[in-house]
Write a structure and sequence with these properties.
By secondary structure, the chain is an alpha/beta fold. It has eight helices and five strands.
């Protein structure tokens, strides 16, 4: 019996360890959390995991998005998520709820900037998904809100999707009745908007 256990131990130590798949951490709000979708597998994050597999990328996608999240809440949550998942890539999709609540744009930008810094300090690459405000928030606020993403991407040298809902937001057939969240038909377009920015960050 003792000899068997020794042989078993030798065999186990001779087997190379299987490296864990690198993680893409999606860190967003209801747009990424799949709010209002009949099934979670219809959401763009689940579609991203399927596309990565189909194209031979060995990444695991972790969705740490929370409906209603602001950049302040995201900044409070991010350190734990980074320590837990050790992501290779972080997709930041936050700010929309700051805008809907008309929170100060400067603070939103500062929060996003700090989140990017925290992610990069842990060795992750960061992709930024921008949002826009409807015109009823006033042209000045809407312009400042949009510009905040462009300025942050420039200053931090982050790949940016200027408007995550491009090609979706003005198409009623792709939006839920609330006019804020894409429906299941809009999810593939959302992924297509991100893909050209995300793909250069991937490694096979």
């Amino acid at each position: 019996m003792k000899r068997f256990l020794v042989l078993l131990a030798i065999c186990l130590t001779a087997v190379p360890a299987i490296a864990a798949a690198p993680v893409i951490l999606v860190f967003g709000d209801s747009i990424s959390a799949g709010y209002g979708l009949p099934r979670m597998e219809q959401g763009w994050v689940a579609l991203l995991q399927a596309r990565l597999k189909d194209q031979g990328y060995g990444y695991q996608v972790v969705n740490a998005s929370v409906s209603g999240e602001t950049t302040e809440g995201g900044l409070a949550r991010l350190p734990r998520a980074l320590k837990l998942h050790h992501p290779a890539i972080v997709v930041l999709e936050l700010g929309g709820n700051d805008g809907l609540r008309a929170l100060p744009v400067a603070q939103m930008r500062a929060n996003l900037s700090r989140m990017a810094e925290l992610a990069e300090a842990e060795g992750a690459k960061v992709a930024l998904l921008g949002m826009r405000m409807p015109p009823n928030y006033g042209p000045q606020y809407a312009a400042q809100f949009t510009q905040a993403y462009a300025d942050l991407a420039r200053d931090k040298k982050l790949p940016l999707v200027p408007f995550a809902l491009a090609g979706i937001a003005l198409s009623p057939e792709l939006m839920q009745a609330d006019g804020i969240h894409p429906n299941e038909a809009g999810q593939p377009q959302l992924l297509d908007n991100l893909w050209p920015v995300l793909k250069p960050l991937l490694k096979r």
